[in-house]
Amino acid sequence: MADLDQIFVTLKHWLLGQFANVLPECWLPIISILLSLAPILIVFPSFFAIMTVMERKGLGRIQNRYGPNRVGPFGLLQPAADGIKALIKEDVVPRAADKLVHFLAPLVLVVTAFTVYAVLPIGRNMVVLDLDAGLLFFFAVGAASELAVFMAGWSSRNKYALLGAMRAVAQMVSYEIPLILATISVVMITGTLSLPQIVLAQGTYAGLLPDWFVFTPWGFAGFILFMIAANAEANRSPFDLPEGESEIIAGYFIEYSGFKFALFFLAEYVSLFAISGLGITLFLGGWNAPFPALAFIPSWAWFFIKLIALMCLFIWTRGTLPRLRQDQLMNFAWKFMIPMVLINLIATALWRFIDAGLTRWFVCGAIVVIAYLLLGRGLMQGKKIAKRTYRFAD
Amino acid sequence: MLNQMTLSFAIIAILIIAGATAAMTFRNLVHCALAVAVAFAGLAFAYLQLNAQFVGLAQILVYVGAVAILIVFAVLLTRGGEAAEKKVFSASWIWGGAIAVAVFGVLAWAIQHSFASQREPLPEAGASVKQIGTALMTKYVLPLEVIGLLLTAALIGAVIIAMREEDKSK
Amino acid sequence: MTPLAGYLLLSAMLFAIGLAGALTRRNAIIVLIGIELMLNAANLNFIAFWRFGPNPEALTGMMFVIFAIAVAAAEAAVGLALIIAIYRHYKTTAVDEVNHLKG
Lengths: 394, 170, 103
What we know:
The structure holds three protein chains of three kinds. Chain A is mainly α.
């Protein structure tokens, strides 16, 4: 089944050969890059459309109601209706708004959201740009998107938009540190910043479970910390105070309507997929199959299966957990996550230097668990939390 | 090939100079901050063009992702985002401009008459991340530790300086 | 004009623009932005010499720039904290109005 695995690679080479017969030599690198980029620009927005329906129906079921069920069978054509609505709405720009910055903010956000896909390995031999410092590229472009959020909030000349933008930027900057430090453990173990190499390092199957990093004590803690930080970076519930729908309506994109609002929405979900893709690459083994017997399913299919699983996890936490207040959010980042992630780094270093066997599992696991218990209990000391009582549901 | 390189160099140069000039001349402070972020991004492209991958990406991460945001926060905390001031340039602006032009003149003369204008470029030798890491841990380990100390001191110092003082009289 | 001379001229121009802004603007934050531009011009110089210079394997130019970026970021943070503290006291950020020690 190696043909099905490499079907897109062979398709690209065939198309490139067809173009080579027609066009002169110097155009070929550009055509090659465009052929690599086109699948990303087609697949991930379609995934975004599917995800909006999945999310609304999933949230609806968690909240004991149906989701959208009018458009198409079981409401599955809802994205088409949403898209048409976004396109035909009037584009209202406030009179006092800063026109150029107001126009550029969604563009910059969408461009940085899509640029990070250039280094994600979607399948075997299927990465657009095999950079030596691929992981650093991912974080650099992710950091650049924060400026676009600020641009959107400030240019609207609206107090609530500015407030939402400041909160969003403060949150994204605070949670960048646990995000990056959680990935440093993986870099320490594999010795490389190049994402395809990290996926290859998880490709062996020693023992009962595959060699993915999530099945090690430091990897498990790192994966959980990475997922929490990714949740916060993408401004999703329970960290969505900057765009809290019941509080400051839509936060930093309150003054945007129609197509620009759709672009913000698209950028948010696309960057969520990208950061989940990074989590899959670093901790969940990338495009590797869990067992050698299941290797007949193509590598790119495994990537998308894992991506859908992570999306279900995100939808589940969104529907279940209440929103965190801004100061609770910042306390959580600086007082709990950063010490936890630094202790995880120590556990990773010990894992590297103790020889393989039961000792290192025990030592590293003990460090991580004890640190979590101490930090968790320690930080809860000063708070008076009453016992939870229910008014009607008893 | 040379045409391709000169074209990208021209685009990068225009981006950097336009961003820097805009940053130094605009009235609205937030526009200045955004223009300087464009200049930083242009510089990062220049580093990537010169095959210094790690430095170019670090430039985006640190400057565009942190320093530009820091400048914007400072502008907003000092009420710079609203009405423009009465005068943008100080009273002795002509002397400042003259000094800057003189400095540029001296540097340009020095560059034109140096070996840089005559020698042809050598072939590339990229630096992989592994080499940088090894160098940081063997030859440059002392500067690395000192930078750690410096960043800690800067972090604590900035927090203490900008912290609101306790009002002890109340 | 060789590529090295091109990059050096670009760096000199950027330095001059940063210097002009730092010397002429009234707002302290813009002065700080000018200083950051000057630091970046020097970094560009280092990388240009590393790439086109005699000894690229020694990585000296690149290392210097990595440390310079870290130092510049720390200095920007402290500088901006100082400006905020001064603003709280004098209620202004214009550099020619903070002259209480004059005369």
